[in-house]
Write a structure and sequence with these properties.
By secondary structure, the chain is of the alpha/beta class. It contains 28 helices and 29 strands.
Length: about 900
């Protein structure tokens, strides 16, 4: 037989097998034409993106599910694609143009869009190449892009239908505006951050000359657009002020003092300056008045003051204007005071510029009618959100949802399918570009310059990617999709909107399950960020340890509802696991010969084993298969991964292989080979490259050309009697090993062992399997019996059904051993005392980071446990009678 390599080389294997899988079409659902459909649509990464830890976790979990379902015989489709990412992509290309001394306005719209397409062609595939490196078993022949022709058709169709149904409208109102990106943003696209600001108190003189009213604001520059001062009608301080008029400083205008129940008397002075053109709450108050208060826009789309701010301030940046206004108020004696004030400030989610409430005409989706059905779908369990705890967040947001602003003032994206007649003002909403105005027949038409919010096209992703609005075979087969795997931060951006659109246009939910995974943090539990310098690059981990070790680390720590504390040490640990499995395979293959080539591994092996160890390992395999399948059904990825790990390392490698060495019969060789082959199948969704590399070299008759399309192991009957009997033997062996370890007895010393058994069944099992105990515990004699008494000068280990005695005559010098243990005891006591002082030091506890304090507490508890065991050992040694 061909010699099995001494070590696993990830880079060679990964490239070789991935190319083979794609070439052979194994990722296409057609490999299982008769199977039940299973479909995941990938959360489309931005075309500007590169693989980060969040992507890596998300893609790994999706791939585990897809490979598992494919191996279960289902018609599995993992549909890939990327998002055009309107603002993000435009920003990237604009920065590139700026380096060349250009901007989009000098280029013009068409030339700029051509530049973006060129950029996309050059760099847009980076993220998908990285997903391939991760082992993603997507059907790349079905890859989609949110601006491709089919998806663009779907977007226009949805816009027109919603407009015709009265669910899309145009309105002028305040919107979140980014002065840097020069576009509207939805509420979800604004990131709020608590910042230390200044609360400025300004006196507004009463027109009647009887005094003044003081207002407090964090944005003095907006006073130039004030149209009223509001007080709460129940505020006794201001009852006599309501209805009066004040002079608005610096403007030459006068404004009224009005009453409104929404004014908070506890904020500032209780008198609120009303700027409907630059504050959402003020706009609401203005609209409640009869007649409505006027709205004055004093800050323009570029973040600079408009002519309505006054000749002196026109053209100033808003922050320059703030400083100028404060200085001018001081000169007039109208600045009462300033104080520090912490408040929440909104920033653009893309460029981090402080947003500006800005009044401008925009397109909106009337969302409440769509939200109602989406709420019912989750409440009635047509869609399960896992973990279930996220349902409350979903309901809370959906029940208080506002109309969705879908227009963006950028050029890269789906242009809004609306045209305006320049002659009669008619608005034309159309799937195709109109030639003439339907009302006046004029050809003088102009298309709306805005594009749609990126999330509009993403909301259609589960059905547009499958061919809608055409009734394709893929759409009939795979919609609704099976599960969406996503992060919690886009639950509202994306998940809720997909549910609304799916129900509206497909009359069914877009997916049955939504699995929300946690965040990947650093080893100390801190959020990764460039500013902290704690970002871990997945590609570096892959290059260093191989894709499989990296993937398995993510899966093994992906517990529901708990963030992952990721460290390189853990990846290294699973690289050791790979080595362990590789070496186990090498041992098994070394014990096979040419006659084993094309061995048929029938499931008959499961019930045909004669040795206790073989019956036991197959029973444990049955348990593992059942547990892994159950865990994956419930999205308990960490439980599935850890079950395979425990079985492979601790039961198969540490116990069964060692026992097999004592009785290497033909039957045992087959059992070794069978169990290994089943481990590889179980492990394949988690470690695809390693398992394929080993599986291809097993000398067994294979029904399929690749493990990726082979059948996933199915549960079979356990042999609980064999598990019980083996537990007695393992207890005896671990008892002996514990004694050897506690007393530092060298492995070369063969021991004299006596075992007192509690029942006849235990005694019979040990007597029949003494060869295992002798071999694995390095014992020259093993005497068992229910009537055994503790020999003189022996050391004891107590287990549930037996007591182990090891005679120490000639093995240790008691006085030397006590001296060694007492020295160790003294060292431990010093370490414990040092930590005790540290943990009672108030300065350390208050100043040290929380994770450092926790680490010291863990260290202390470990030392205490070690001390307890040491004292127990000393007591045992002292009680010995030689």
């Amino acid at each position: 037989m061909t010699e099995f390599p001494k070590s696993y080389e990830p880079k060679t294997a990964e490239q070789k097998w991935y190319e083979r899988w794609v070439e052979k079409g194994y990722f296409k659902p057609e490999v299982n034409p008769e199977g039940a459909p299973f479909c995941i649509v990938i959360p489309p990464p931005n075309v500007t993106g590169s693989l980060h830890m969040g992507h890596a976790l998300n893609a790994t979990l999706q791939d585990i599910l897809t490979r598992w379902k494919r191996m279960q015989g289902e018609k599995a489709l993992w549909l890939p694609g990327t998002d055009h990412a309107g603002i993000a992509t435009q920003n990237v290309v604009e920065r590139k143009l700026a380096e060349e001394g250009l901007d989009r306005h000098t280029l013009g719209r068409d030339a700029f869009i051509e530049k973006v397409w060129q950029w996309k062609k050059e760099y847009g595939d980076r993220i998908t190449h990285q997903l391939r490196k991760l082992g993603a078993s997507c059907d790349w022949s079905r890859e989609r892009f949110t601006l491709d022709e089919g998806l663009s058709k779907a977007v226009r169709e949805v816009f027109v239908r919603l407009y015709e149904d009265g669910l899309i409208y145009r309105a002028t109102r305040l919107i979140n505006w980014c002065p840097r990106c020069r576009t509207a943003l939805s509420d979800l696209e604004v990131e709020h951050e608590d910042l230390e600001g200044t609360l400025t108190y300004i006196k507004y003189p009463l027109v009647d000359g009887t005094g003044h009213i003081t207002v407090a604001t964090t944005r003095p520059e907006t006073m130039l657009g004030d149209t009223a001062v509001a007080v709460n009608p129940d505020d006794e301080r201001y009852k006599d002020f309501i209805g009066k008029t004040v002079e608005l400083p610096l403007t030459g205008r006068t404004i009224p003092i009005i009453a409104d129940k929404e004014v908070d008397p506890s904020f500032g002075t209780g008198a609120l300056k009303i700027t409907p053109g630059h504050d959402f709450n003020d706009e609401a108050i203005a609209k409640r008045q009869d007649p409505q208060l006027p709205s004055i826009t004093v800050i323009g789309e570029d973040g600079r003051m408009t002519r309505l701010a006054g000749e002196k301030y026109k053209g100033l940046d808003r922050y320059e204007c703030r400083r100028a206004v404060i200085e001018d108020l001081k000169e007039l004696g109208l600045l009462e005071k300033q104080e520090r004030y912490s408040h929440s400030v909104g920033h653009c989610y893309r460029c981090k510029t402080t947003i500006e409430p800005y009044s401008t005409p925009q397109w909106y989706v009337k969302i409440e009618p769509l939200a109602k059905k989406a709420i019912e779908a989750v409440r009635n369990k047509k869609i399960r959100i896992i973990p279930e705890s996220w349902e409350n967040s979903y309901f809370s947001w959906m029940e208080n949802i506002k109309d969705w602003c879908i227009s963006r003032q950028i050029w890269w994206g789906h242009r809004i399918p609306v045209w305006y007649c320049n002659d009669c003002g008619e608005i034309i909403v159309s799937r195709e570009e109109p030639k003439t105005c339907g009302k006046c027949k004029s050809e003088n038409l102009k298309q709306d310059p805005d594009v749609l919010d990126t999330w509009f096209s993403s909301a259609l992703w589960p059905f547009s990617t499958l061919g809608w609005p055409e009734q394709t075979e893929d759409l009939k087969t795979f919609y609704p999709t099976s599960v969406l795997v996503t992060a919690f931060d886009i639950l509202f951006f994306w998940v809720a909107r997909m549910i609304m659109m799916g129900l509206r246009f497909m009359d069914d939910v877009p997916f049955r399950d939504v699995y929300i995974h946690a965040l990947v943090r650093d080893a100390e539990g801190q959020k990764m960020s460039k500013s902290k310098g704690n970002v871990i690059d997945p590609l570096i981990m892959i290059d260093k340890y191989g894709t499989d070790a990296f993937r398995f680390t993510l899966a093994a720590f992906a517990a529901q509802g708990r963030d992952i504390k990721f460290s390189e040490d853990r990846v290294q640990g699973y690289r050791h696991f790979i080595n362990k499995l590789w070496n186990a395979t090498r041992f098994i293959l070394m014990n096979l010969s040419e006659k084993h080539r094309d061995t048929v591994l029938s499931t008959d092996i499961e019930s045909a084993q004669q040795t206790l160890a073989s019956r036991w390992i197959l029973s444990r395999l049955a348990f593992t298969i059942e547990e892994v399948n159950s865990a994956l059904e419930d999205y308990r990825f960490n439980d599935a991964a850890n079950t395979i790990y425990q079985f492979t390392w601790h039961e198969f490698c540490d116990w069964y292989i060692e026992m097999a060495k004592t009785e290497m019969s033909e039957e045992v060789r087959l059992c070794l080979l069978y169990t290994l082959e089943r481990i590889l199948r179980l492990l394949h969704p988690f470690m695809p490259f390693l398992t394929e590399e080993i599986w291809q070299q097993l000398p067994v008759k294979k029904e399929k050309d690749s493990i990726t399309i082979s059948e996933y192991p199915r549960p079979f009957a356990r042999n609980k009697a064999a598990e019980t009997e083996m537990a007695y033997i393992m207890d005896a062996i671990t008892g002996i090993r514990t004694i050897r370890g506690e007393l530092n007895i060298p492995p070369s010393e063969e021991l004299e062992v006596y075992i007192k058994t509690s029942t006849q069944a235990v005694d019979r099992t040990l007597k029949e399997n003494t060869h295992y105990i002798k071999k694995l515990a390095r014992a020259k004699t093993v005497i068992t019996g229910m009537d055994i008494t503790k020999p003189k000068g022996s050391y004891t280990a107590v287990k549930d059904y037996l007591e182990v005695y090891v005679t120490l005559k000639g093995l240790i010098d008691i006085s030397s051993e006590l001296e060694r243990l007492n020295k160790e005891k003294k060292k431990l006591e010093e370490s414990i005392l040092f930590l005790q002082k540290k943990l009672h030091n108030e300065e350390f506890l208050s100043r040290a980071p929380k994770h450092i304090v926790e680490k010291e507490k863990e260290k202390y508890n470990t030392l205490i446990q070690k001390q307890e065991k040491l004292l127990e050992s000393i007591e045992k040694i002292q009680s010995l009678e030689m």
